[in-house]
Prior knowledge:
Blueprint: E1 5-13, E2 22-27, H1 35-45, E3 50-54, E4 63-68, E5 73-74, H2 78-89, H3 95-100, E6 102-107, E7 110-119, E8 122-129, E9 135-139, H4 142-148, E10 164-167, E11 172-176, H5 180-185, H6 190-196, E12 205-210, E13 218-226, E14 231-234, H7 238-252, E15 260-268, E16 276-285, E17 288-307
Parallel strand pairs: 2-3, 4-6, 11-12, 13-15
Antiparallel strand pairs: 1-2, 1-17, 3-4, 4-5, 6-7, 7-8, 8-17, 9-10, 10-11, 12-13, 13-14, 15-16, 16-17
Amino acid sequence: MAGIKRRYATVDVFTDRMFGGNPLAVILDAEGLSSSQMQSIALEFNYSETTFILPPDEPAHTAKVRIFTPRTEVPFAGHPNVGTAFVLARDSRFAAAAALGSFVFEEAAGLVPLTLLREQGAVAGAELRAPESLSRKGMVSREIAAACLSLDPADVALHTHAPQVISVGLPFLAVELCSRAALHRSKPDTAAHAALLPLDGADAVFAYWRAPDQSSGAVLHARTFAPLDGVIEDPATGSACAAAITLLATLESGEHAQDGERAWRIHQGDDMGRPSLLLGRTAIRDGGAGDTHIGGRCVPVLEGTFVL
């Protein structure tokens, strides 16, 4: 029996130039593929994630999207949503939804609404709304967190929060560092990761340094390491960045906090040669953190077909 020809596209996410940002493969014709076949395809591309497009359960939604790393399926991730929305906006089957400027994806973590970003009338990227409110889970010592990052414990900052598992759809161990230099020196210690992770669903470490506040908004520099998931370093991690800025917004809000919105710029991938820029928004509502959005630009790279 002949195999079915299936279309795919790849895109660089959270960048305005080819070969920057985080690459993503999108399988546009995923109907009939088994989970094991999807996993094999994701391993073949060997990007940090590959998405598979299926018909939605609810016709009012745009698509069902399944997301796979080279080793496992995940319920939600940032750059796969942004990149998938960009790819579908360029596909004639989704022209009607694209004309309205928004998509809704069905994912294991829940519904993920996305807004298309346009420049000079053309779709240039997308912005997602995190599917879950912030959850804060297990904490670890600065010594253990430092070991995971091959750093000295003194490099780990504690004045804002202890190293902690956080999530708005996908858990990460978030570690604030004391300096940009410490972030640059970071590298994953696989043995330390294996001794600690998975922890409360997290199998990756998100390390960041917060720059002095800028007039244009808060600025973070970040790196994500997930060697246990087959991803030594991720160039841009929207789900982790969304969780981190939600945590920071929550910690900064108090009973006297005024409702409003804060802009965030997160630089990631610089230390591995794939510069990425993630643009975030956090809302303060009734003295606490409200919706979190994360988005950015995308660049098309490859299109093709395969037979399976």
